[in-house]
Design brief:
Shape: elongated
Number of strands: 0
Order of helices and strands: HHHHHH
Bound molecules: zinc ion
Largest sheet: none
Mean pLDDT: 86
Distance between the termini: 66 Å
Number of domains: 1
Helix content: over 70%
Number of helices: 6
Oligomer: single chain
């Protein structure tokens, strides 16, 4: 890995969070265009962040499933009694 790659990857979170200026973002994008390993890494990171966001915001069906589970766990004692 070149020093330039290390510098890019060290700041990748800041770039993805748009915490850098336009010129720096342009340099970042230019590096990715010329450097397939960095490009692949950043794509994987973006995908991972997307999945984390999805996991952090449960859908309606997730909430319904969680309610069913909670009810199923609350009932057995009543059923026995
Ligand atoms: Zn690179």
């Amino acid at each position: 890995m070149s020093p330039r790659c290390a510098a890019i990857l060290a700041q990748v979170d800041a770039f993805l969070d748009h915490e850098r200026g336009a010129l720096e973002r342009l340099r970042f994008a230019a590096h990715l265009a010329l450097c397939p390993p960095c490009d692949r890494y950043v794509r994987q990171l973006q995908e991972a962040r997307r999945l984390l966001r999805l996991a952090a915001t449960p859908s309606e069906s997730d909430l319904a499933a969680a309610r069913r589970l909670a009810v199923a766990h609350a009932r057995p004692r009543e059923a026995k009694g």
